[in-house]
Amino acid sequence: MKAKSGFTLVEILIVVVILGILAAIVIPQFTDAATEAKESRLMTELQTMRSQIELYKIQHNDYLPGKAASGYTAVNFELALTGQTTVNGETGTDYGPYMKRLPTNPFNDKGSVLAEIEIAAVDQTSGDSSDNYGWWFNNVTGTFGANDIVDPNHYKL
Question: 42 lies in which domain range?
Answer without folding.
Answer: 11-61+96-156
